[in-house]
């Protein structure tokens, strides 16, 4: 169907009857939303109906394809490029684990194009904590590309790259529930990263989202959701992982012990606001943290290093991450990111 036949009313009638949208129909619905042609009531009704029915792989893929097509793009070599953007929304206020992991992975030789936003449900999103660390987050696509080529890592502030999302902001805020939009940020990397560690708030959807990543052209990915409710690899419980590799998805559980890490209480990885979380990351990188904060970063950075092709197993990735911290390379990468993003902002 095309935009002329797939109206929001028709989509809503389909969804409320329990029927699914095709991938093409989902693209069309998202295009209507992103173009500003849909009313707030229509947007809220459609995304609520999708949530109640359960979003399919085709529906999520179609929405993501339209969002990607309408976003600003960072022009760079995509092969071997990693993102660590997750969904958030776990309701557990841990510190910014995926952001710290991205910098460690970069220091290990993985090219990282980190996509992220300010906090939606927690106290500090990746944009918030990077800003608190002294990183300039407001880079244009050209500046982000320069940063990536110069030091092997960049940050892309989602608000600057997806201007069409403004049309859905009001309905999302008024609904106050998780919808398909919570899944779209991690699926719409502006640099077209072909590798990803994606933390997901809903363990029942890891295989579906891994399948979506495959449909979107990613070569390697891990979608992770722990049994204790984290959208990260946990050190307090087993974590369910759906791994995309070679065009297929396999799902398995992994324990902290299998990663060579000590199991620790979930309460020991709780963070705070952006300033507190930035201080935690500085202490980890500076070698002052040897407990749970360090270990949960090792678990997730190790997965980044593995997905990025710099380790042959998750456990080897964890060991590599520990070496990166202990040799000061993680701290050096943070300093590079602060310096380079500061300098490039003053270059016309």
TrEMBL record:
Cofactor, free-text remark: Binds 2 magnesium ions per monomer.
Family designation: Belongs to the anthranilate phosphoribosyltransferase family.
Keywords for the protein's UniProt record, in alphabetical order: Amino-acid biosynthesis, Aromatic amino acid biosynthesis, Glycosyltransferase, Magnesium, Metal-binding, Transferase, Tryptophan biosynthesis
Domain Glycosyl transferase family: from-to ranges: 80-331
Pathway: Amino-acid biosynthesis; L-tryptophan biosynthesis; L-tryptophan from chorismate: step 2/5
NCBIfam families attached to this UniProt entry: trpD (TIGR01245)
TM region(s), chain numbering: none
Protein name: Anthranilate phosphoribosyltransferase
Gene Ontology MF terms: anthranilate phosphoribosyltransferase activity; magnesium ion binding
EC number: 2.4.2.18
Substrates-to-products reaction catalysed: N-(5-phospho-beta-D-ribosyl)anthranilate + diphosphate = 5-phospho-alpha-D-ribose 1-diphosphate + anthranilate
Alphabetized InterPro entries for the sequence: Anthranilate_Pribosyl_Tfrase (IPR005940), Glycosyl_Trfase_fam3 (IPR000312), Glycosyl_Trfase_fam3_N_dom (IPR017459), Glycosyl_Trfase_fam3_N_dom_sf (IPR036320), Nuc_phospho_transferase (IPR035902)
Residues engaged in binding Mg(2+) 2: 231-232
Keyword Translocase in annotation: no
GO biological process: L-tryptophan biosynthetic process
Claim: Transport is one of the keywords in the record: no
């Amino acid at each position: 169907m095309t935009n002329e036949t797939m109206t929001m009313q028709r989509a809503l009638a389909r969804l409320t009857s329990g029927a699914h949208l095709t991938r093409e129909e989902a693209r069309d619905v998202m295009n209507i939303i992103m173009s500003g042609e849909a009313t707030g009531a229509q947007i809220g009704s459609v995304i609520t109906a999708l949530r109640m029915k359960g979003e399919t792989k085709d529906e999520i893929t179609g929405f993501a394809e339209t969002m990607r097509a309408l976003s600003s793009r960072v022009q760079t070599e995509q092969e071997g490029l990693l993102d660590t953007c997750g969904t958030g929304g776990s309701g557990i206020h841990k510190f910014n684990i995926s952001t710290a992991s991205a910098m460690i992975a970069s220091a290990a030789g993985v090219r990282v194009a980190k996509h992220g936003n300010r906090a939606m449900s927690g106290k500090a999103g990746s944009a918030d904590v990077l800003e608190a660390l002294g990183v300039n987050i407001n880079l244009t696509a050209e500046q982000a590309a320069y940063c990536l080529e110069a030091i092997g890592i960049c940050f892309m502030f989602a608000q600057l790259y997806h201007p069409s999302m403004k049309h859905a902001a009001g309905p999302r805020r008024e609904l106050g529930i998780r919808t398909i939009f919570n899944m779209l940020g991690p699926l719409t990397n502006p640099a077209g990263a072909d590798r990803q560690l994606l933390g997901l708030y809903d363990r029942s959807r890891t295989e579906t989202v891994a399948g979506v990543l495959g449909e979107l052209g990613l070569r390697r990915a891990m979608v992770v959701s722990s049994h204790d409710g984290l959208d990260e690899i946990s050190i307090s419980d087993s974590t369910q992982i759906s791994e995309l590799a070679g065009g297929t998805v396999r799902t398995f559980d992994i324990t902290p012990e299998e990663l060579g890490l000590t199991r620790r209480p979930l309460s020991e990885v709780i963070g705070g606001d952006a300033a507190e979380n930035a201080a935690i990351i500085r202490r980890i990188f500076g070698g002052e943290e040897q407990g749970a904060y360090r270990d949960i970063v090792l678990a997730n950075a190790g997965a980044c290093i593995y997905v990025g092709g710099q380790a042959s197993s998750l456990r080897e990735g964890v060991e590599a991450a520990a070496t990166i911290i202990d040799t000061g390379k993680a701290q050096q990468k943070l300093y590079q990111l602060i310096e380079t993003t500061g300098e490039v902002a003053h270059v016309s």
